[in-house]
Write a structure and sequence with these properties.
The complex is a heterodimer. Chain A has helices at 9-17, 19-28, 34-61, 64-82, 93-116, 125-156, 158-167, 171-196, 204-211, 216-249; strands at residues 88-89, 262-263. By secondary structure, chain A is mainly α. The mean pLDDT of chain A is 90. Chain B has a single domain (10-225), classed as 3-Layer(aba) Sandwich (Rossmann fold), CATH 3.40.50.300. By secondary structure, chain B is an alpha/beta fold. In chain B, helix 5 (147-159) packs parallel to helix 6 (177-193). The chains are: A mainly alpha, B alpha/beta.
Chain lengths: 270, 226
C-alpha cells in the first residue's frame, strides 16, 4: 500500500462541488434536470457510503456466515433487477432470471476462487465479494438481454414458430431460431467489451489496483482472469435464462403457449 | 370387423375449450369424425370458433377436454410431431423463413420427423407449375413474395411431403380472387391424387368458395359446430 494517497472528507467535498458544473449546465440550457441531479448525487453518495461501511464491517468480521449471506443478497438483487427489463414478461420470469444468474455466477466464482486465485480461506471477503460483484454485473446484462430478446423474437416470429410446429417440428426445433438469436444478443455485450478492453476502457478494477500501488502487469493479469470469468458466467447465465424461458413457453405437447407472454404495464418513470 | 379402410382418419370426441380470463366457452363439446375421401367446409361468423376448432385438431392449442384419435388410436405426446406431419395445418397468413423459396421448401427436411424423406426439387417445380408458377419461382426471395405467392409457397411446402389431411384455416382470406383459385386448384389436385384416402377441412368466409372446396358443409356458431 506504499504511495497510496488517502482522501479526506474535505477532498470529497471539493469533488462534490464539481456536480455544480452539471447544475449550471442544466440551468443555463434549461435541461430541467436540477432535481434529478441532486437526487442522483445524493443517492450515489449515500449508497457508496453505506456499502463502504458494510464492506468494512464484513472485512473485519471475516466469517463465512457473514460473507455468504451478503453474496446471496447481491445475487438476489442482480437476479431481480435483470427480470425488470423488456416489454413482455411471463409468470415465473423472476424465478428464471434469479436461478440462471445464481447458478452461472456462483459456479464461475467458485472456479475462480478455488481453482484460479486459490485464496485462503475461500470466503476471504476482500476477494470473494468484488469478484462475485463484477461477475454478477455482467451476467445480469446477459441474462436480461437474453430473456428480453427471446420474448421479442417469439412475439414477432410467432407465425414462423407455429408454422414449424404445424409441419411437425418438435418444440425444441421450433424454438431453435429465436433461442439462438436470444443467446447471441445476450453474449454480444461481453464480447464487445473484451475486444475494446484496454484500448477504449480501462476497467475499474485494474485502475483501482494501479492506484493502490500494484504493478500494472499484475493488475493486467487480474483483469485478464476476471474478463474470462465474466465471459464464462454471462454466457452460461444467458444460455440458462433462454432455456428456462423456452421451458416456460413451450409445452411438452409441442405447443407454443403464446398466451403466457404478458405485455408489461407501462414502466413507471422515476 | 372394421378394416383399416373403415377407420376414420380423425375422430374427435367432445373437444372443449374455455377461455379462462373472460370465462367464456370458445368451443362447446364437439364431436367430429373425418374419413378418407371427405372434404369438409366450415363457415360461420368470425370469432365463432372455427379457427379454435381447427387449431385444436392440429394439436396447436391445448384443449380443456376431449380426445383426438388418429386412425383409431390415441396420440401419445411423442407422436405429436408425426401426427402433424400427416395432418397439416395451413394458417391464414403464411409464415416464410429468411432465404429463398427453395430454402423454405427444404426446411421441413431439416426436422427430425422427416428423417426418412428428402427434398425433391423436380417435385417442387412440378407443384409450382400446377399453381401457374415457373421454375424461377423457387429462386425468389421469400421476403419479396406477394401474399398470394407466399401462400402458394407455404402450400407447396406442405404438399410436397404428402400429408393425409389438410386443415385450411382461411388460406385465401387475404388474397385476390386469381390467387385464391390457384390455391384451390393445388389443394384439389392433392385431394384427387389421394384416391379417397385423403381428407380436408376448409374454413372459409366466402360462400361461393365454400361450395367449390367441399361437399360436407358445416357451420360454426358461437362455439357450436352443426
Amino acid at each position: 500500500m506504499s504511495g497510496y494517497q488517502s482522501l479526506s472528507l474535505l477532498d470529497i467535498a471539493i469533488a462534490a462541488a464539481l456536480i455544480l458544473v452539471n447544475g449550471v449546465l442544466s440551468v443555463a440550457l434549461k435541461l430541467d434536470l436540477e432535481r434529478k441531479l441532486v437526487w442522483a448525487a445524493a443517492r450515489s453518495v449515500v449508497q457508496l457510503l453505506v456499502i463502504g461501511y458494510v464492506l468494512g464491517w464484513v472485512f473485519q468480521f471475516d466469517r463465512w456466515y457473514v460473507v455468504v449471506p451478503l453474496m446471496a443478497l447481491m445475487t438476489l438483487i442482480a437476479g431481480l433487477s435483470a427480470s425488470n427489463r423488456g416489454r413482455r414478461t411471463y409468470i415465473g420470469q423472476r424465478v428464471d432470471s434469479v436461478v440462471s444468474i445464481w447458478v452461472s455466477s456462483w459456479l464461475v466464482a467458485a472456479v475462480g476462487l478455488f481453482v484460479v486465485i486459490r485464496i485462503h480461506p475461500w470466503y476471504e471477503p476482500q476477494y470473494a465479494i468484488p469478484i462475485l460483484g463484477m461477475i454478477l454485473g455482467n451476467t445480469l446484462t446477459g441474462v436480461s438481454l437474453g430473456i428480453e430478446r427471446m420474448t421479442e423474437e417469439l412475439t414477432a416470429g410467432r407465425g414462423a414458430v407455429e408454422m414449424s410446429l404445424a409441419l411437425g417440428a418438435t418444440r425444441w426445433e421450433a424454438a431453435q431460431r429465436p433461442a439462438r438469436q436470444a443467446v447471441r444478443a445476450g453474449m454480444i455485450p461481453t464480447l464487445n467489451q473484451m475486444t475494446v478492453v484496454g484500448l477504449v476502457s480501462l476497467p475499474g478494477m485494474m485502475t483501482g489496483q494501479v492506484l493502490a500501488g500494484q504493478s500494472p502487469l499484475q493488475a493486467v493479469r487480474y483483469q485478464i482472469v476476471i474478463m474470462f470469468f465474466i465471459a464464462a458466467a454471462s454466457a452460461l447465465g444467458t444460455v440458462g435464462a433462454v432455456l428456462l424461458t423456452y421451458r416456460r413457453l413451450f409445452s411438452p405437447e409441442h405447443t407454443f403457449m403464446a398466451s403466457k407472454l404478458i405485455e408489461r404495464e407501462k414502466p413507471k418513470r422515476g | 370387423m372394421s378394416t383399416l379402410a373403415d377407420t376414420p382418419l380423425i375422430r374427435a370426441t367432445a373437444l372443449t375449450r374455455h377461455e379462462p380470463v373472460r370465462n367464456t366457452t370458445l368451443l362447446h363439446p364437439t364431436t367430429f369424425i373425418l374419413s378418407g375421401g371427405q372434404r369438409a367446409v366450415i363457415t360461420g361468423p368470425s370469432g365463432s370458433g372455427k379457427s379454435v376448432f381447427l387449431r385444436a385438431l392440429a394439436l396447436l392449442d391445448p384443449v380443456d377436454d376431449g380426445v383426438i384419435q388418429w386412425r383409431g388410436r390415441a396420440i401419445a405426446r411423442g407422436g405429436i410431431p408425426a401426427y402433424r406431419r400427416r395432418v397439416a395445418y395451413i394458417a391464414q397468413r403464411p409464415a416464410m423463413l429468411d432465404g429463398s423459396v427453395e430454402d423454405n421448401l427444404r426446411y421441413p427436411f431439416s426436422l427430425k420427423v422427416y428423417r426418412d424423406a428428402r427434398f425433391d426439387r423436380e417435385r417442387a417445380v412440378e407443384l409450382a407449375r400446377r399453381a401457374g408458377r415457373d421454375t424461377d419461382f423457387l429462386d425468389k426471395r421469400a421476403s419479396e413474395l406477394s401474399g398470394g405467392e407466399a401462400q402458394i409457397a407455404a402450400l407447396i411446402r406442405v404438399l410436397q411431403v404428402d400429408p393425409d389431411v389438410l386443415l385450411l384455416d382461411e388460406p385465401t382470406a387475404s388474397l385476390d380472387p386469381a390467387s385464391a383459385l390457384e390455391i384451390e386448384a393445388l389443394v384439389s389436385a392433392w385431394f384427387d391424387d389421394g384416391h379417397d384416402e385423403r381428407a380436408s377441412i376448409w374454413v372459409s368466409h366466402d360462400p361461393a368458395q365454400a361450395k367449390r372446396v367441399g361437399e360436407r358443409q358445416l357451420v360454426m356458431t358461437a362455439g357450436t359446430l352443426s
